[in-house]
Amino acid sequence: MQRLYHPAPAPWSHRLSGTSLQAPEQAPQPVQQLEYDAQGRVSRLISHAFNQAWTARYEPGLSEWSIGTERHRFHYRDYQGQQRLQKLESRLCDTCPVQSTEWQYDPQGRWLQAGLWTAQRRANGTLSGLEQRQGGWGPLRLELDEKGRLQSWATSQHGGETRRWNPNGKLRRLEYAEGGSLHIQYDQQGRLSSLEHQQGHETERSELDWLGPGALRIRHPMETQWLKLRAGLLQERRLERSHSPSQSWTERFEYDEQRRLTQHTLPEGGQLRYRWDAHGHLQSLEWVPQTGQRQTVIHAQEVGYAWGNGLQLISHANSAGQAVDLMLLQPDGKPVWTQARRLDAQGKVLEDRHEYPLLQETRHWFLHYDTKQRLIAFRQGKTESAQWLAWNDSGALVARHPKPAASIQRSSTGTTKAIGNLNLDYGPNRRLQRVQTADTTLVEYRHDAFGQRIWRKQGDQERAFFFHGQQLMAELDLPAGPGQLISRRYLYAGLTPIGMIVYQPDGQGQLYYLHSDLMGAVRLISDQQTKPAWAADLNPFGQAEPLLETLEFNLRLPGQYAESATGWHDNLLRTYLPEHGHYLEPDPLGPWPQTQAVGYAQQQPLRHIDPTGLLLFAFDGTRQAPITNSNVWKLSQLYQDGAVHYAEGPGDPVTLNWDALTAWRAGRILESQWNNFLNRMQEQGPAPSAVPVDLLGFSRGAALARDFSNRILDHVQQGWFVLNDPQRGAIRACITPRFLGLFDTVAQFGLGGASNSQYRLGVSDAWSWVAHAVAMHEHRAYFPLSALTEAMNTVEMPFIGAHSQIGGGVLPDENEETISDLDKVALAWMHWQARATGLTLAELGHTDLNVLHPVLLDMRLPGLRLTQGSLRGVDSHGQGQNLMYQDLHPRLGQATQQSMETVIKRHNSWRIRPGNQVGWVDMDAYDTWLHNHLGWERQAS
């Protein structure tokens, strides 16, 4: 199969008139066609693949794109020779209301207002501040310094932060409105070396020791971790805890050739053994205790999984494809527990019914929503009175009637001081460390370097907690008996808990089986004889009503752990209040568009179907979000083949945090996108027309996009996406895996890539076209390139620049006097690749076509540039040979880099010159290089 590019007729021969695909000895089949007016503007865009034709009409200061009765009018105004968007009016049908958004600018064409955001500028025109009138964080103000870096943010409701930067442009200190601070230090290689939290007289310091290839130590007052890695996979972890100084916990991990976990050797002895099929599906999980007798936890069936005691889960959707039923059955077919839901046309849960025949219990919930889709009332059964709810924009509960929730008292800076008669005390790491009444301490907590709660003291009882991959894996009741390392261990299939091992003081363990509802919350636990050992009903906020308790169990909604002392839930990095239905603390990542400070699930606490169609799935890079204006964000906003789902990358765009270092949110980003995709597939249904699926990604986001592409193809059979989903029932939809656009893939999940094995980064030939833009001047060892294997459907091209100069969205701490805009070159190339594949994208704007500051960046510290070679490696992820250095790559290595040097003008003494700017690019010469080496003619406006 060949892809053909057809030039437009003169005088526009430098532009495309269309593309086609040609199989051997067959006539070309048209994919996309473009027509131009006399001024060279696109006047008509025809997609043969989807039988669509967009028409464009232009007037002075106006362009209109239409298809059928759908119209989008873009109003422009000229500011000193540059057109600026003034107003966007969209009408999806003749009878639909017009949706309008307006922009305002100063006389020089610099924006002053965009939607709810207002900008303040200095006399020289640079941004000094941004204000948002209303939103999920209340009135919000951002202050920027003269280099455009975020200096502070402040809200009247949830406090604020001030940032300090070191001479190298890296964040060195955070100061909080309530008086605490975080001090950040780096080693000579620019790697994070320590974090020191301070609040009053309290200090908490975490230190990272990079001990050599594949070895890392993390020191914290409560815990020390030693990590051993090989080829980016975690091989061994050893823990020492302050609560048990004479003990240590060592666990080991083994993998197959596809880098999938096959055996987890447990600290307490025994193993967990995983078996996978050829498509990467988990076939079985077995627990092998120290006695050596294997016990099956789950094993795959034709539909879903069955537990080792013979219980099996069956689910299906009703004829309308909405209400979902779930049945947990005994081997003889008798029900143990059932769930049934009734949904409205928008997918909101109106009724949720649970029956426990063996316990002779039934719970039936009725739910009601407001016009903003927020839950405003719920009741259990038809006789109990309803609980009425009112919310504010931050997601906090304003009122509950007739059973009011305990009042929350906050300081003037937004810090929570008390809930009802309980007083709260936060540690220097900003995690809850103590809850007190007027005369006694109710409970105390301590956390690790990642902010995870690892120790609790309640009265005279102590308990330790152990985490892996942001999941609670085990608990230990203290003081422990001689040799006892674990009291309870939790077993998971992905994010769903499926088993629990309860250990006796002598080390003997008993396996129990966990059964979750459509939200992923455990409702029932069974023993080896299928007899219920624990059961509970959960109200819509996740608050449990025990129905049977023969053992202790505290897992609730996904990621939440119930605290008996307060009734609250620990939720990894925050505290969730099930009585209120929201979080106690604001999001630790700070304020971002479309987020709520303390809201949980947008006030829709039951998992529901999202009726919005989602065709483009955009995974952005580490510390990338709309505010950074990355290339993934830009392309997602130009997409016109359907609605877009954009996922911000791991980490905070304007500060350094553990998420940026370890990408701990990566799994949650994937799960969110997967649920969105399943919602779209269920809505599509078995319609004969294929839905195109397009993916974009930068950095770690590109790695997530590649893993996501494989997850989709796991369920594709002859062009049909087929899945029997526990929540949605049977899903069958015709799809076309069309385009995969990647900007400089970097897979660094977990510290040093310890969690890379959880992601599949190979690219299938089922995708119509895969384009990968690669950075040729990224030299840092901890940004290894995940290269593609050469194939008929892939193109992998080199571009001048460091990592961020390919994906765009250069962060403030990577800027100097001039912000480089070399990323526009890779953006334009990817835009060209996408349109040639058949994607309908709007034209790139003038500002995204003209490269005004072609500054070359080298992100290494000046002294480290004295080394001649790059330390960046190349990972093939099981698809080929790994390379110690990118310089050795036949296509993306030293030879290509040397050919690029002819168009780069290096600064004198660039190897020891302060800052990151080491030269500039002759764009005319670079355009010639691109034409000769890539066969692509870049067009400037």
TrEMBL record:
> Matching Pfam families, A to Z?
T6SS_Tle1-like_cat
- Region entry Disordered, spans: 1-31
Q: Which InterPro entries does this one have?
A: Rhs_assc_core, T6SS_VgrG/RHS, Tle1-like_cat, YD
Location of the T6SS Phospholipase effector Tle1-like catalytic domain: 731-831
Q: Residue spans with biased composition (Low complexity)? A: 21-31
The identity of this protein, by name, is T6SS Phospholipase effector Tle1-like catalytic domain-containing protein
